[in-house]
Amino acid sequence: MTLLNENERAARSSALHHDSVSYENGQLFIEEMSVGKIADAIPTPFYCYSAFTITNAYRLLADKLGASRTLICFAVKANSNVSVLRLLSGLGCGMDIVSGGELERAFAAGAPPSKIVFSGVGKTRAEISRALEVGIHQINVESPAELDVIRDIARSLGRRAPIAFRVNPDVDAKTHAKISTGKKGDKFGIPLEEIPELYARAEASAELDVVGLAVHIGSQLLDLSPYRVAYERLADLVKALRSCGHLVRRLDLGGGLGISYDFGAGPDVGAYAKIIEEAFNDIDCELTVEPGRWLVGPAGLLVTEVLYVKNTGNMATVIVDAAMNDLMRPSLYSAIHPVLPLQDINGGDSSTYQLVGPVCETSDVFGNYEGLPKLRAGARLAFGCAGAYGASMASTYNSRDLIAEVLVDGARFRVIRRRQTIEDLLTLEVERPWQASNTYADAATAL
């Protein structure tokens, strides 16, 4: 990947609706804060997010979609930090969750249950019970077996469960194979042809409030045409269900809007909104969309420091203190994030640098980069577009610290998740008393 020079970055930045990263006097800034000043206070590596960027992105999408008709629910899995969720909730955003833990995070952020949608193929009984007890907006049903479990739990609680059937429309999202969710054979959703029978069965159950349908075909979509195909199939299904006398009040259209990882503008949300309008303009339904990456991805930086530089073959390898456990996307998806030096030096080194982390895995590689300044130990860099699927996918592999997260608002910043150290982790591994199992002992004796 070739790094843009300062003038090229400035030109690109001016075209973006949600860009807050720039150079001032050769120093990298996020909003009005010098990233270097933050790094002086917070040990690297750490994540850093722009509140302005997130706010701008949400407002733009709400404006294009028409907030009065469409509920925007943030896909919490993209960035589950409570402060980020609180920022979005305060703007009027709902939450799309896929676990009980994400439900509790949404509550901690102040999100109202009436704006929470529960997706995901493997909801446990405890998670379903909790969702029904607090009265969330809807549960998206992923299988006939799950439908039966939801009905049984609703009956035991004396509640009526609001459900939508997640349709698998068999549409190729033209994205990475590991984040495609709407093709035949994917584990997500129910085949379109099975929906009418299930819909009728669910409507006959007093414990179930069948509110409509849901669809989500994948993540990081840059080509919008698969949305058009999926939404047309969904619209046809609505008409078929209504022709049989079924009520369809809501349509959950999923998320998946992609971002550009090379400083480009990404997909046109106005065109996205137009596809939705054209597909459903003659269908009177409440609409929900569930963006994740698009709202927060461009808002984030992963700030790191060079540890060592060494030669490997014909290439200089730069070892930084961030690793695959901090940012999984390069090793998991072969993704390449842009790299910005915290000090911009005109006329970059002609060398190609391979940036790698210190984790003991060959796959701990961020990519090959040209146009960076001469790199030495102690130099600081920032991986861009790191606000989504960065911290939320991080781990403590190799017993490394779970790194801090920082939120920037104008000319101020604060830590929104402190670094989780090895001392913190070891407190979770204090030995507890042994638990005897007579049942197991009896069974072993019988063998």
Q: How many separate domains?
A: 2
End-to-end C-alpha gap: 62 Å
* Secondary structure category: alpha/beta
DSSP summary: helix tally: 14
CATH class of the largest domain: Alpha Beta
Radius of gyration: 24 Å
Shape category:
globular
Q: What is the fold-level CATH name, i.e. the topology of the largest domain?
A: TIM Barrel
Q: Main beta sheet, described?
A: 9 strands, mixed
* Helix proportion: 25-40%
Percentage of residues in DSSP E strands: 15-25%
Strand elements, count: 21
In summary, what is this structure?
This protein is of the alpha/beta class. It is built from 14 helices and 21 strands.
Q: Could you please describe the fold and organization of this structure?
A:
With 447 residues, the protein is an alpha/beta fold. The protein has two domains: 6-41 and 300-427, Lyase, Ornithine Decarboxylase, Chain A, domain 1 (Beta Barrel), CATH 2.40.37.10; 51-296, Alanine racemase (TIM Barrel), CATH 3.20.20.10. The protein has helices spanning 6-15, 35-41, 51-65, 82-90, 100-108, 125-134, 144-157, 195-203, 225-243, 269-280, 293-296, 329-333, 422-426, 438-446, and strands at residues 21-24, 27-30, 33-34, 46-50, 70-75, 94-97, 116-118, 138-141, 161-168, 190-191, 208-214, 250-252, 286-289, 300-312, 315-320, 339-341, 352-356, 365-370, 380-383, 404-409, 412-417. Strands 4, 14, 15, 16, 17, 18, 19, 20 and 21 form a nine-stranded mixed sheet that branches. An eight-stranded parallel β-barrel has the order 5-6-7-8-9-11-12-13, surrounded by five helices. A hairpin with a 2-residue loop joins strand 2 and strand 3 (33-34). The protein starts with 5 loop residues before the first helix and ends with a helix. It catalyses: meso-2,6-diaminopimelate + H(+) = L-lysine + CO2. Specifically catalyzes the decarboxylation of meso-diaminopimelate (meso-DAP) to L-lysine. Pyridoxal 5'-phosphate binds at residues 256, 290-293, 389. Substrate binds at residues 293, 329, 333, 361, 389. The active site is at 360 (proton donor).
